[in-house]
Design a protein that fits this description.
The chain is α/β, with parallel strands linked by helices. The protein has helices at about 1-5, 15-20, 75-80, 120-130, 145-155, 155-160, 165-185; strands at about 10, 35-40, 60, 90-95, 95-100, 110, 115-120, 200-205, 215-225. It has seven helices and nine strands, in the order αβαββαββββααααββ.
Length: about 230
């Protein structure tokens, strides 16, 4: 199922190779580069901490909330930008995630310590199920982020329901939304970078069962302030 839906997915360790190949082009290295993520809050995405061994700066700065949408907004990004080392730069890794179990169930993953599979991404699955059941859109202060996720799915539901896999389609919609919002935030806050270069790597995290390695399918690699 990974090959069918995410044929270019590679082990997350390959992200380090990509970053190592890109940074020297802008005179950046592991010591003068601060990193951030805009990925879902789900603990399974802690697999990105494999990059801790590369970055010497303390990180990552968290820009994303549930589903990976950059809920930190311009204020969060400006705070992140103000923390970049002098004469340095930054990296942001962004995108949604989706689980695929050993037996090929898409939208689920078996987590360590549990004898059953559970939703992954739970936020996207919950939003999809809510829209499919016809629930009225409700954005409340005590579940604001999920309300926004549901809104995005509602706005794109006609496209989603016409596909062979609605959770894969929802994940693709989430990727486009995260990329669009994050790009708008960065483009509208370039002055806060103070001329420092920013590398953005977008893709989809493919979570696997707890005893297997997670994957990342790179979709976009772009530089700002170059």
């Amino acid at each position: 199922m990974v090959k069918e839906f995410f044929s270019d997915a590679k082990p997350i360790a390959n992200l380090r190779q990509l970053i190592e190949s890109e940074l020297p082009n802008k005179n950046l290295n592991s010591s003068n580069t601060l990193w951030a993520t805009s990925v879902c809050s789900d603990e399974v995405n802690q697999s990105l901490h494999q990059l801790d061994d590369f970055f010497k700066t303390f990180g990552p700065f968290i820009l994303g909330g549930i589903s990976g949408i950059p809920f930190a907004g311009k204020t969060g990004f400006k705070a992140f930008a103000s923390h970049i080392p002098d004469e340095g730069g930054a990296v942001i890794i962004y995108g949604p995630h989706i689980g695929i179990t050993k037996d090929g169930s898409v939208g689920k993953v078996n987590r360590e310590g549990q004898d059953h599979s559970s939703s992954c991404c739970g936020s996207l699955v919950a939003g999809l199920n809510s829209v499919k059941s016809g629930n009225i859109l409700n954005i409340s202060h005590d579940d604001y982020q999920q309300g926004q996720v549901n809104k995005i799915i509602t706005e794109n539901f006609e496209e989603i329901k016409s596909t062979d896999s609605d959770i894969v389609a929802t994940t693709e919609i989430a990727y486009k939304q995260i990329k669009r919002e994050l790009t708008d935030i960065v483009a509208g806050s370039l002055d806060s970078l103070d001329g420092k270069p920013l590398l953005m790597i977008g893709g989809i995290i493919v979570n696997t069962d707890w005893d297997q390695q997670d994957l990342f399918e790179v979709r976009d690699v772009s530089w700002f302030n170059i």
